[in-house]
Write a structure and sequence with these properties.
The chain is mostly helical. It has two domains: 184 residues, no CATH class; 206 residues, no CATH class. 83% of the residues lie in helices and 0% in strands. The longest helix has 35 residues. The protein starts with a helix and ends with a helix.
């Protein structure tokens, strides 16, 4: 729908908004989503501690939501200029987001809670219906309102999902009984905020660099080429979503409760034996069918992006390989190691993008993507070598 009614340039602008929403997710939840999964999984049967954890998290996040809403609402015009290449007319997007943020963030909190409790079927149901609602709502809005409809769809459907996730949480906690000030325990924040530091690094560096890449491609070889690069990222996000969902739903709780290196190694091996080979085959199929996929998901106007697939898929393979290792940082709360390795990957991405886009245009952006995740995977394998192979070679 975006391709048909807005075109490559519109795809680029919606990509900027998607990148902006990523840090909004992190700051409004204080970056505690993975921490909620871990601590809920570990303390599911300790009612008193679970109550204190959930009260502390909920009240802290509520305070963060109020602050974030004000930060979005008051300088809305400035946000519009910053995100949309100097255009002030989209200030309304940030005002709508500010008022919808409590529902938007509430859904993220409740889904993380359901994840930690091991309610996989309910979370999968939410993901399925969330995507169905998102597609239908966005399609209608884009059809009726064009680019403005695309923006509105991006920020509204996650808020609508709040009511679905609330329904499931109320089944376990009637009247949201855990949200009481008397259960708030400030001492628990120290452990939880370690996850905030890890998430904030990604929330700040990631979107800034991706907006930089998109704008650099636009300035170097035109807005349409930036749209092709963004369109390929959208395709990648679809299949990466399956891996991230499986990791969050299944592998992160397993890693969190793994007590020894051998336990962790068995989780790693199950991922590399069961998930990675399927993705390798899938990526080859995607490459072979790339022209059909472009015509199916976009329009013939987007066919030039076919030349970007090889480097993108290569980078995504190494990204899939590295994701399970990256989740070990969250499972074991390895804050310093995460910050160092994540900062390293973003530095590689920034420097390689700057050099390669200048020489190869949009293709340079996907070449940088492949180089970054190859380097990141090698670094993680070296760091976790004892847990992967059991002894130092």
């Amino acid at each position: 729908m975006i391709a048909l009614f807005i075109g490559p340039a519109g795809m680029s602008l919606t990509g900027n908004l998607r990148n902006f929403l990523a840090p909004v997710d992190i700051f409004s939840t204080l970056g505690l989503q993975n921490g909620i999964v871990k601590f809920t999984a570990e303390n599911e049967h300790d009612h008193d501690k679970l109550q204190r954890i959930l009260a502390t998290v909920s009240i802290s996040i509520l305070s963060a939501v109020v602050l974030c809403s004000l930060i979005l609402l008051l300088p809305a015009v400035s946000w519009s200029r910053l995100v949309f290449n100097g255009a002030p007319q989209y200030a309304w997007v940030f005002r709508v987001l500010a008022f919808g943020l409590p529902l938007y963030t509430g859904n993220l909190l409740f889904v993380a809670l359901l994840n930690g409790l091991g309610n996989f079927k309910q979370v999968i149901f939410l993901n399925i219906w969330g995507n169905i609602i998102g597609v239908l709502l966005s399609a209608v809005l884009i059809w009726q309102m064009g680019l403005n409809g695309a923006f509105l769809g991006l920020i509204s459907y996650p808020a609508l999902l709040f009511f679905f996730s609330l329904y499931y949480v109320l089944q376990r906690f009637p009247n949201l009984s855990f949200i009481k000030l008397k259960y708030f325990d400030a001492s628990l924040l120290t452990g939880l905020l370690s996850y905030s530091f890890m998430s904030v690094i990604t929330a700040i560096l990631g979107p800034v660099i991706y907006i930089y890449i998109r704008n650099t491609v636009s300035q170097t070889v035109g807005a349409d080429n930036a749209g092709y690069w963004e369109s390929l990222n959208r395709i990648a996000s679809f299949y990466i979503m399956f891996a991230s969902t499986m990791l969050t739903l299944y592998f992160l709780p397993k890693l969190s409760i793994a007590k020894s290196s051998s336990d962790t190694r068995s989780v790693f091996l199950s991922y590399y034996k069961g998930i990675v080979p399927l993705y390798a085959v899938g990526l080859v199929i995607i490459y072979m069918l790339r022209f059909i996929i472009i015509k199916l998901l976009f329009t013939v106007e987007f066919l030039p992006m076919a030349g970007l697939f090889a480097w993108q898929l290569t980078g995504d393979f190494f990204k899939i390989c590295s994701m399970i290792l990256g989740y070990e940082f969250f499972a074991k709360k390895m804050t310093k190691a995460f910050i160092v390795t994540e900062s390293f990957s973003f530095c590689v991405l920034y420097v390689s993008s700057k050099l390669l886009i200048a020489k190869y245009g949009a293709e340079g952006a996907v070449m940088a993507h492949a180089l970054t995740y190859l380097a990141y995977f090698i670094v993680l394998v070296v760091y976790f070598r004892k847990k992967i192979i059991g002894h130092v070679v």
